[in-house]
Design a protein that fits this description.
single chain; 345 residues; alpha/beta; ten-stranded mixed sheet; two-stranded antiparallel sheet; 11 helices; 12 strands; 41% helix; binds nicotinamide-adenine-dinucleotide
Length: 345
């Protein structure tokens, strides 16, 4: 098996705790990985005065792949989000967030198995904000044809590759007729070559959130702009039991960065109770990206076995009595056991 160099970004808050958990699980599963630790977020800002040091970006470019923990962003003041900068600098235009009901943790919302495909580079994340007069602020929503077509094409290709049947564009084009209108029109255009292979429809974002919480199983792949995608993916994570369960990946033409949906969770940082499953599942996606489909399957199956058969080992967010450490130990052990068996899925 070939050896991969992967940048390891612990981030801050609960980041270092859960990233270490994911590293242990990946190592137990078998891919030959040389981890390259680098800094990002509050830790980097305190040390270098920059939440996204140039060396970190350079190393991710060189390796092509990173596993990233969450980073804290100051609210309503301070430096620009390292996440937003990273996604723009590396052109990580596609944020993929699969949200799937976890065995043993079925919720009253019914079966959920959907994928959020979120545009990652523009929209209200453009950072173009001005106080145009005292008490009057403008925040500019940027939607371009290039980025909208690119993410729509990605969503249809993703659907084909992963055996998904339908892409639903989510928008508010009744109000933002130009911005969301352009996004929707690009999605429509890009859907045409996939007609007969992947269905396409669209829905207003407000109506969609209601439909999502009443019957999540009606959705398959959701295609969204940056801000709607961020909000809807947290909502969808809530439907399956919380942020501790929802993985994610950011893809661009040259690099991919794997990270959970959740943030740095300052309320539980350092307590040893953060749920590592979301980043462990993100790391499984990373293994798939690296071509190690056996580890992808093995890690996911190991997580499923633990959530189904060992509820007591889960972390407090899932009403268990376990810690980050004890849950990770159990997943590592299950991965090692499965490594001795042939993989089937
Ligand atoms: P959050 O996701 O950090 O936490 C929201 C709630 O979910 C908290 O109660 C937290 O304890 C809980 N939670 C989150 N992850 C968990 C886990 N793995 N296990 C158990 N419980 C978990 O969102 P927030 O509090 O709004 O944001 C905190 C900081 O994180 C902010 O600075 C924000 O900008 C940042 N953030 C970073 C990223 C990222 O780096 N990709 C993503 C989202 C938010």
């Amino acid at each position: 098996m070939s050896r991969h160099r992967v940048v390891l970004l612990p981030g801050d808050g609960i980041g270092p705790e859960v990233v270490e958990a994911a590293r242990r699980v990946v190592n137990a599963s078998g891919p030959e990985i040389e981890w390259v630790p680098m800094e990002i977020g509050a830790v980097a800002f305190e040390k270098y005065g920059d939440a996204l040091p140039a060396d970190t970006v350079k190393e991710i470019r060189a390796c092509g792949v990173a596993l990233k923990g969450p980073t804290t962003t100051p609210i309503a003041k301070g430096y620009t989000s390292a996440n937003v900068r990273l996604r723009k600098e590396l052109l990580l235009y596609a944020n993929v967030r699969p949200v799937k009901t976890v065995p043993g943790l079925e919720t009253p919302y019914g079966n959920t198995d959907l994928v959020v495909v979120r545009e990652n580079t523009e929209d209200l994340y453009s950072g173009l904000e001005n106080e145009v007069a005292p008490g009057v602020v403008c925040s500019i929503k940027v939607i371009t044809e290039v980025a909208s077509r690119r993410i729509a094409k990605f969503a249809f290709e993703y659907a084909l590759r992963w055996g998904r049947h339908r892409v639903t564009a989510v928008h508010k084009a009744n109000i933002m007729k130009k911005a969301d209108g352009l996004f929707l029109e690009c999605a429509r255009q890009e859907s045409l070559p996939y007609a007969g292979r992947v269905q396409f429809d669209d829905v207003l974002v407000d109506a969609m959130t209601m439909k999502l919480v009443t019957n999540p199983s009606q959705y398959d792949v959701l295609l969204l702009e940056n801000l709607y995608g961020d909000i809807v993916s947290d909502l969808a994570a809530g439907l399956i039991g919380g942020l501790g369960l929802a993985p994610g990946a950011n893809y661009g033409p040259d690099c991919a960065v794997f990270e959970a949906i959740h943030g740095s969770a300052p309320d539980i940082a350092g307590k040893g109770i953060a749920n590592p499953i979301a980043i462990i599942l993100s790391a499984a996606m990373m293994c798939h990206h690296l071509g190690d489909t056996q580890s992808y399957v093995r890690i996911r199956k190991a997580v499923r076995t633990i959530t189904r058969d060992h509820r007591e080992l889960l972390t407090p967010d899932l009403k268990g009595k376990g810690s980050t450490r004890s849950l990770t130990d159990a997943i590592v052990k299950e991965v090692e056991r499965r490594r001795r068996e042939p993989v089937t899925d």
